[in-house]
């Protein structure tokens, strides 16, 4: 008889006027992997934070192992064997792995004994679950995949039987995500219960036993994973039918609009990140750059958009060369018709403390349309912002709202609207749908294809292989700073995966 | 031999002059390591100095004076905590406010209580912390080199001097060898990690501020009850700010802090010693320039001679649970 590890009964939670959770009922069976999907803002994280004692529910009951439980603080949750791996890691970056693991779970006032104990405990966990990590490594020197492992170890060290993971793969490379899933399966085999919160449906299908769908604060459905489909889940999440793969016609590639020549870029430590690459993007085509994060894509984007100085290389924009080794000026590139949607919208693309309308002209504020003499023409800017809001379906439709208050998907739309509406000849987009909901992904993909059909040259860099395959007319694969292969959109995932992993071209072709 | 004696004298006064800086610097270290910027070290030292001297002269006891100095200084630290932890106010504004209140209230209360123009009555020797002469200090004085080092540099200081220097290894031990230290360092780097680990961020930060208050209290008591025989208005004279500079220079590490404060103390001692003395090659240097030396050094060091100083990452940011 399957036993419930956790039962949530009638949970309600409001933040001011926002009802984050409404009358939620959920049962999680012991020893299973239970997925919770929903768009950003559907209330998944709130629900889990209530379970972890980070917030208090306004009403409702929590039962752990059949017993009613009162979880008022994370301490209570930890005592009940509930552990959580947060989306943004709760680690102290300049502490060692050991120090992070014992923080809050020290055995006495002096550290020595706790550290000795944790060291042997970590060795045991490493043996049992294959959770290898150097206990004396400093967190900030570890790759994100390992940092996440430390979070899991933290929970296990505290005796967690139920492990909640909030969007665990958002920051991981595909290989790291696969490794994580293997670890989760192993934990399940050892009898642990796992709750996986995500908005990536593929992960749900790949690893969960049961899946619950949340929408706008309510629990809309719970399904056995093997009896459902991605399409059904997507529809339940968004509340309408969603196209997971955007339909598009044949590309009609024209003249070369953007030509990158012999681009070499080093990072701040002097390591060569982009190694002498050249490629073209023609009018009316989308070129996708695939690759595991950290293989030079970010540096390449920064160099082409003029944010980072290149060691060598130039770009041809409409046949006129621009040297990238000097103090390339993003403004100059922009004036010449190159629009850039940066990978990291929070740090590079937007000023989160600004109002939406201010962000919607950022970088174009010197344009005559937005000026009245030496002053900004506030009315023109707001009207312009309102037009973009309508056209790009940005919600909430309020151009005076602080940008930080928009969801990730809508923030991305603000940046896209700003860059696309300048009618650039060349559009380069980094991670177009990172942290964006299923519904908005569909919209963004459609806009990108519309740009292509208008005869623009579009360069898309993404670590999401599905996205690259569904958008691109040509796919370039980057590995270790080089372009290691070019494929058409019909290339299989396996073929691209091998290229992304750095397997030589000939081998991949076999 | 004159040269040697001169050096010993300068080093001796280096120690005396660095003590208030060191205590204040360690005080700031506790607070800033826990993520609370404390520009109010100056003010807390000042109220400590006033409370210490006032209580010592009224109760005729150095120890009651010290206790009162610590008590009042901790109270001011808690006010800073109430504003910046409980109410998530701006830590700089709160610190500046404390400095103003300290400067104004000490003069006003001093005048109201003692009618000596804001001073407290001169303390009798038994109301101050006198020098502790180590065994054999007088007998060894005659021994060349080592004798003066022992009897002048090591022996013959007030108990608070030893407290200050012992506070250095003690602070190091607290920071890196105790649970409290681990949590305190963590809360200054990433309070959310501490919160999710089930530890109260606010209580931890309050405790760190209490440590700060104790140390600034001792620093104040040193100024008014050891260095000086009573309280004089504004007697901290910017030492709280120099201590903050030393803290940055020391990259928030206790042992570095000691060396940084000794360096500032040395410059101070040197500037006193060299006043009116013609220097070889340069000739006579204006007094004002010598007095300005420690401050000039502060500016130069902070302007970039110290490499990259990374402050505790959550410093200055009130902790709010994410929504």
TrEMBL record, chain A:
This is Heme ABC transporter ATP-binding protein. It comes from Mesorhizobium wenxiniae. InterPro entries: AAA+_ATPase, ABC_carbohydrate_import_ATPase, ABC_transporter-like_ATP-bd, ABC_transporter-like_CS, P-loop_NTPase. Keywords: ATP-binding, Cell membrane, Membrane, Nucleotide-binding, Repeat, Sugar transport, Translocase, Transport. It is found in: Cell membrane. Belongs to the ABC transporter superfamily. It is a peripheral membrane protein. Its main location: membrane.
From TrEMBL, chain B:
One of its GO terms (molecular function) is transmembrane transporter activity. It is a multi-pass membrane protein. It is found in: Cell membrane. Its main location: membrane. Coiled coil: none annotated. The keyword Hydrolase does not apply. This is Sugar ABC transporter permease. The lineage of its organism: Bacteria, Pseudomonadati, Pseudomonadota, Alphaproteobacteria, Hyphomicrobiales.
């Amino acid at each position: 008889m399957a036993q419930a590890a956790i039962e949530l009964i009638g949970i309600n939670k409001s933040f001011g006027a926002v009802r984050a959770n409404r009358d939620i009922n959920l049962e999680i069976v012991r020893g299973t992997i239970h997925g919770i999907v929903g768009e950003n803002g559907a209330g998944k994280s709130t629900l889990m934070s209530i379970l972890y004692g980070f917030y208090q529910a306004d009403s409702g009951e929590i039962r752990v192992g059949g017993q009613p439980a009162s979880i008022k603080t994370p301490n209570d949750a930890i005592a009940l064997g509930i552990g959580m791996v947060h989306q943004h890691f709760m680690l102290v970056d300049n502490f060692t792995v050991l120090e992070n693991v014992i923080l809050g779970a020290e055995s006495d006032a002096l550290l020595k004994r706790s550290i000795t104990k944790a060291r042997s405990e970590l060795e045991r966990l490493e043996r049992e679950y294959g959770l290898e990590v150097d206990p004396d490594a400093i967190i900030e020197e570890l790759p994100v995949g390992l940092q996440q492992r430390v979070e899991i170890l933290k929970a296990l060290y505290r005796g967690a039987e139920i492990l909640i993971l909030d969007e665990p793969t958002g920051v991981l490379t595909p290989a790291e995500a696969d490794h994580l899933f293997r670890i989760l399966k192993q934990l399940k085999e050892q009898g642990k219960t796992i709750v996986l919160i995500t908005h990536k449906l593929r992960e749900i299908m790949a690893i969960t036993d049961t899946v619950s769908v949340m929408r706008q604060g309510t629990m809309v459905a719970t399904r056995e994973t093997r009896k459902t489909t991605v399409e059904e889940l997507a529809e339940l999440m968004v509340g309408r039918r969603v196209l997971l793969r955007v339909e598009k016609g044949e590309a009609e590639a024209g003249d070369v609009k953007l030509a990158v020549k012999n681009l070499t870029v080093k990072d701040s430590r002097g390591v060569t990140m982009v190694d002498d690459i050249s490629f073209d993007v023609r009018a009316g085509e989308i070129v996708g750059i695939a690759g595991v994060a950290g293989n030079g894509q970010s540096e390449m984007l920064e160099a082409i958009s003029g944010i980072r100085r290149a060691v060598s290389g130039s770009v041809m924009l409409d046949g006129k060369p621009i040297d990238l080794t000097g103090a390339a000026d993003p403004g100059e590139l922009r004036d010449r018709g190159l629009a850039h949607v940066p990978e990291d919208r929070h740090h590079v693309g937007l000023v989160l403390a600004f109002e939406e309308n201010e962000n919607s002209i950022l970088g174009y504020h010197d344009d005559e349309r937005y000026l009245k003499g030496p002053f900004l023409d506030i009315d023109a800017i707001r009207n312009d912002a309102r037009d973009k809001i309508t056209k790009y379906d940005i919600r909430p439709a309020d151009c005076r709202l602080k940008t930080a208050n928009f969801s990730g998907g809508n923030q991305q739309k603000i940046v896209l609207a700003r860059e696309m509406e300048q009618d650039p000849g060349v559009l380069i987009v980094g991670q177009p749908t990172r942290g964006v909901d299923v519904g908005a992904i569909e919209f963004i993909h459609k806009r990108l294809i519309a740009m292509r059909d208008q005869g623009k040259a579009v360069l898309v860099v993404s670590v999401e292989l599905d996205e690259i395959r569904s958008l691109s007319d040509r796919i370039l694969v980057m590995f270790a700073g080089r372009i290691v292969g070019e494929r058409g959109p019909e290339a299989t995932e396996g073929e691209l995966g091998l290229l992304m992993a750095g397997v030589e071209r000939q081998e991949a072709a076999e | 031999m004159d040269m040697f004696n001169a050096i010993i004298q300068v080093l001796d006064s280096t120690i005396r002059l660095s003590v208030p800086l060191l205590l204040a610097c360690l005080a700031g270290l506790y607070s800033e390591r826990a993520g609370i910027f404390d520009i109010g070290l100056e003010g807390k030292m000042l109220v400590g100095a006033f409370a210490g001297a006032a209580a010592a002269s009224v109760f005729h006891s150095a120890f009651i004076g010290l206790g009162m100095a610590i008590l009042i200084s901790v109270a001011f630290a808690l006010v800073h905590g109430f504003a910046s932890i409980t109410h998530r106010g701006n830590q700089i504004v709160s610190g500046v406010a404390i400095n103003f209140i300290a400067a104004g209230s000490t003069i006003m209360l001093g005048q109201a209580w003692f009618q000596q123009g804001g001073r407290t009555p001169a303390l009798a020797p038994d109301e101050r912390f006198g020098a502790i002469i180590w065994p054999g200090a007088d007998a060894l004085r005659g021994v060349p080199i080592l004798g003066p080092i022992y009897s002048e540099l090591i022996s013959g200081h007030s108990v608070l001097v030893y407290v200050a220097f012992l506070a250095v290894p003690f602070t190091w031990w607290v920071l890196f060898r105790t649970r409290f230290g681990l949590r305190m360092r963590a809360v200054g780097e990433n309070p959310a990690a501490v919160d999710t680990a089930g530890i109260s961020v606010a209580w931890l930060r309050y405790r760190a501020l209490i440590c700060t208050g104790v140390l600034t209290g001792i620093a104040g008591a040193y100024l008014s009850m050891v260095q000086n025989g009573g309280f004089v208005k504004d007697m901290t004279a910017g030492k709280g700010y120099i201590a903050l500079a030393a803290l940055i220079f020391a990259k928030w590490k206790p042992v570095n802090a000691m060396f940084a404060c000794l360096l500032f103390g040395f410059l101070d001692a040197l500037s006193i010693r060299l006043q009116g003395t013609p220097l070889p090659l340069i000739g006579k240097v204006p007094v004002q320039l010598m007095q300005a030396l420690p401050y000039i050094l502060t500016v130069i060091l902070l302007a970039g001679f110290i490499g990259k100083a990374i402050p505790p990452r959550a410093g200055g940011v009130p902790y709010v649970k994410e929504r």
